[in-house]
Design a protein that fits this description.
heterodimer, A: about 325 residues, MetI-like fold, two-stranded antiparallel sheet, 11 helices, B: about 290 residues, about 0% strand
Chain lengths: ~325, ~290
């Protein structure tokens, strides 16, 4: 009797510790798997890119040629196009996203916040292929017919602006791609801004209202300074998304291998070039290797931008 | 600024003070107006996209969309693409969810300030926003190169996108569970893993399910990772070992075609995928999360 009671708990405890050990091991392995996954992505892209890096050296980064016929490849044009479209997209998106976040946190009546917030989040849920198709079949013709001719005429003869916005009005091009990208990232920026604006302690805002500040003055002098770092983090996060966006850009950028300051002209981004050229790339060819090489470069750029963003947004640190 | 105003300005010059006040309130009104305008613009984008989809896609909806396979001409349907999307999305979710769940559990229950935990959290967050086309290239390199395009490769690529989404929501939801609940389980003599599986998971079920639904919604519309993995197939194929069609790839192939019938099919596909994805999102937000 006394023996069996002494044995039973011990057996129960040992099975519990075994179960615990197995479960903890599984959980930890899954965590390690995520790290391995990232490492594998970097290594596999780099191995695939090696032949191109060997063939072209560091010159790959600033060579503007992309000529499959002569097997000469350079990454300068797609890198330029990727950064240009993303930056223009951010310039368009940030003011609109700020307006939405300001409206949602300070201006909208309470009952209205939830539906508007959900609608903005749904905009983020629309698949990128839909943005691409909408951009190609709806926005590009609209730009070509109404917006671009007017803009080109207006800016003709004005220094700088007439270089940035030149004819012909084709509809497709860098600016249209950036516009579609902007629509895609507005919800990300707006959602981050709204969330960080909510973190401002009410007593700060109330004090400012108490000394007679207007809503805008409270936003400018209290909310923005308090949340500045996180807001920049949110914008970087959106930039990271914009850099790698494929489908929306591939449809509307026009796909031309050239560096031009003309925003209405055609261009190419890393993602669009990979998507369009991959079908023609033979196994083991220099073209395939060069595509993997620009993919690797895109990964490095996105990783840096996303890492900065995560640092600024201060992820929930484990306590 | 306001100190000088109240101390001297009103008595000395009432009109200056009034003008300043008026200017401040005018700025405020203008900014408020611009913010409302920005919100209207944002909502207008969603409205025009949905309107365009219904306007151009709804007319092409018929039973043959669900029964016929993709081909040009008026008899074309999307049956193979719909089946392919369902299979690959299911496969991606089936692979990605358990892994994501375990990673989220590790981060919330086991990592507690460890360096490994912080690294996993950081990397998972980076993967959450990593360009999906690169995930396609990666899976191409490890599963497709030299072997050929397969539905499995498509599913694996989607699983890599599912994992970080499930990790994020699982960790967040497990952290919300009160410590008292865990302590109660431990006090009853339950080992840690039992308290997690039988107490924490059920308590966090709503949130975890939300994460899985959002992940399904996200991968169902993914195109770029499938381009180099499952490639697309103009015939009906349920064979995971060969190339497989999917709705986003069909839209990608047909949207730029000169053939009006194919463009019509692309719009129908776009309508189906968008409303499917938005419906999943609304279910995830409205039905499963009444608390927030």
């Amino acid at each position: 009797m006394s023996q069996s009671t002494a044995v039973a708990p011990r057996r129960a405890r040992s099975s519990a510790t075994t179960g615990d050990a197995i479960f903890a091991f599984l959980a930890k392995s899954a965590g390690v798997l995520v790290l391995v996954l990232l490492g594998a992505i970097i290594v596999s892209l780099f191995i695939g890119a090696l032949p191109a890096f060997r063939a072209f050296g560091f010159g790959f980064l600033w060579n503007v040629d992309w000529d499959p016929n002569q097997a000469i490849f350079g990454a300068a044009v797609p890198i330029y196009g990727t950064i240009l479209t993303s930056v223009v997209a951010i310039v368009i998106a940030v003011p609109i996203a700020f307006g939405i976040a300001f409206y949602l946190t300070e201006l909208a009546p309470n009952w209205f916040r939830r539906p508007v917030g959900t609608a903005v989040e749904l905009l983020a849920a629309v698949p990128s292929i839909i943005y691409g198709m909408w951009g190609l079949l709806v926005i590009a013709p609209f730009m070509a017919t109404y917006i671009q001719p007017a803009v080109i005429d207006t800016f003709d003869g004005i220094p700088l602006l007439d270089v940035l916005f030149q004819g012909p009005a084709r509809g497709k091009g860098v600016f249209t791609a950036a516009l579609i990208l902007a629509v895609m990232i507005i919800p990300f920026i707006a959602a981050t801004m709204r969330d960080v604006f909510m973190t401002v302690p009410p007593v700060y805002k109330e004090s400012a209202y108490g000394v007679g500040c207007t809503t805008w003055e409270v936003m400018r002098s209290i909310v923005i300074p308090y949340t500045r770092v996180s807001v920049v983090g949110g914008i970087m996060l959106a930039l990271g998304r914009a850099l790698g966006e494929t489908m929306a850009v591939t449809f509307v950028i026009g796909n031309a291998n050239r560096i031009s300051p003309n925003l209405f002209g055609s261009g190419a981004t890393i993602a669009s070039l990979v998507a369009l050229n991959f079908g023609e790339a033979q196994q083991g060819s220099l073209l395939l290797s060069s595509l993997l090489a620009i993919g690797f470069i895109l990964f490095v750029i996105s990783f840096i931008v996303l890492a900065i963003s995560r640092t600024l947004l201060k992820p929930r640190a484990a306590k | 600024m306001s100190a000088t105003l109240t101390a001297s300005a009103p008595s000395r010059n009432q009109s200056v003070a009034n003008n300043l006040s008026r200017a401040r309130h005018r700025t405020n009104t203008i900014v408020k107006g611009l913010c409302i305008l920005a919100t209207v613009i944002g909502l207008m984008f969603l409205g025009t996209i949905l309107f365009t989809l219904i306007d151009l896609g709804f007319g092409g909806l018929s039973t043959k969309v669900f029964t016929n396979i993709t081909r040009s001409g008026p008899d074309g349907g999307l049956a193979n693409a719909i089946v392919g999307t369902l299979i690959q999305t299911a496969l991606g979710t089936a692979i990605g969810t358990p892994i994501g769940l375990m990673v989220g559990t590790y981060l919330s229950e086991y990592s507690a300030g460890s360096r490994l935990g912080n690294a996993v959290r950081f990397v998972s967050d980076v993967l959450l926003s990593a360009p999906s086309i690169l995930i396609g290239l990666f899976v191409y390199q490890i599963l497709v190169a030299g072997r050929g395009y397969t539905g499995i490769a498509g599913g694996v690529a989607l699983a890599i996108i599912v994992i970080p989404i499930v990790v994020r929501t699982t960790e967040d939801m497990l952290r919300l569970i009160p410590t008292a609940l865990r302590e109660a389980a431990v006090a009853l003599g339950a080992p840690k893993w039992k308290s997690i599986v039988q107490v924490c998971y059920p308590a966090a079920l709503d949130g975890i399910a939300t994460g899985v639904l959002l992940a399904i919604a996200r991968v169902a519309g993914e195109t770029a990772p499938l381009l180099f993995t499952s490639f697309g197939n103009s015939y009906m194929s349920t064979d995971l070992g060969s190339a497989m069609a999917s709705l986003p790839l069909a839209i990608y192939q047909f949207a730029g075609q000169p053939d009006a019938d194919l463009v019509q099919l692309a719009w129908v596909g776009a309508l189906l995928i968008t409303f499917g994805v938005l419906a999943l999102n609304i279910v995830a937000r409205v039905v499963l999360r009444p608390r927030s």
